Fold this sequence. Notes:
Blueprint: H1 3-14, H2 17-38, H3 41-51, H4 69-80, H5 87-96, H6 99-124, E1 127-128, E2 134-135, H7 138-145, H8 150-180, H9 187-203, H10 205-234, H11 239-251, H12 253-256, H13 265-278, H14 287-291, H15 299-327, H16 336-343, H17 351-381, H18 386-399, H19 406-418, H20 420-429, H21 431-442
Antiparallel strand pairs: 1-2
Amino acid sequence: MDILTLNEYLNRVVYGFPMKLVFLLVGAYLVIFQIRWFSSPLRMMRVSFSETLGAIRERAYGFGGQITPFQATMVALSATVGTGHLLGMLAAVLIGGPGAVFWMWLGYFFGTGTKFAEATLAVHFRRRFADGSVSGGPMYYLYRGFPRLRFLAYFFAFFAAVAAFGIGNLSQAGAVGGALAPLGAPPALVGLFLALLVGVVLGGGIARVARFAQVVVPLKLLLFLVAVVPLLVRYAGKIPEALALVFQAAFSPEAALGGAAGYSLFAAINAGLGRGIFANEAGLGSAPIAHAQAQVDHPVRQGFWGVTEMFMSFLVTSLTALTFIASGLWRGGGSAAEAASALFQAHPLGGLILAVTVAVFALGTMVSWGFYGEEAAAFLFGEGIRWPYRLTFAVLAFVGPLGGLEAFLAISDTLNGLMAIPNLLGLILLGPVVARLVYGFFRGEPWIPPR
């Protein structure tokens, strides 16, 4: 068995339906630990907003880290809200029909508990250095939380460091090049721009990455609104019907869709859960690396920011899906790229707004994933690896729009999925720690970081 055949088999495993159920079950397990204090998901959402966006001005920052909790969330959102929220969402509806959106929402519901736990543990177990900087994420809560299972921390760090070159770099740079190609942008020039931008931003460390994220995330959301709102207005009369289809087709696609060929209950569940799990990266272990950098006085406060991050991601995917369903174009089949092109023919700015939005979405993802990969590499090899890693990342950013390296992309995509296995195991084992931290937070007990 050659390496590509083995990779294809592993890819089917890590992105297959059984693995999606594992994500769902872990999320449900973590939600149980939080029910005692939040009573309901709506109360958890209300408390999260009051502790994050509702208190952003009056609350003094805590200690540790070099960036604010808001900036840490922007870094995470910059990676999370990407092309999967646009093209990936269209693909899920094309494969599973409107019912896939309901199952996507279910994935988000349980993923909220997962993201809350990840962000909380990332701050609790982060490592502090003499210069005041910190590093954190799954590799640290696996390493410090379970000394006998430290090999899991090394596995996660290796998967993350290598996967960032592919899923967080080459594929994103290729998406930027593909989006700008119809506008006449030469691939080599796009690659040079990406290499310089990524190199300069990553070269400034987390402080510069955070400042970049503070600009690019609002830009992403603004572009998304410019792209989607005119279409929502155009199809406003069809939105109630689209919502009804989501619920009707979630459990009986053939009956709800009049026996439309290709749509089955399994297809709806599989496609929807996949989008609801992988679009927001809950359980993957990437976002906690950003959340660990926050200046907070208690880990649970950053857990609330993780919930806020999920909500923003949820809005983007849901609005994209409802717009697509209301347009009726999902019945036409074809690829996600073809469907997106057809959808935006009705937009006043046409394909231009789609191209720019996809390019900016991918660009933001690149920078955050560059930081994730760098942190994972530093865990494995020490601080001296940072500049070699940054330079390698910049070189691959240049190569991405030119194409090629498909075999490496396929392998890195599998490694991206493999990141979740040690992380999910760590979340299961550390669930009681999250419960104790939440209990202490609501009782007003001071947070004592582990040594």
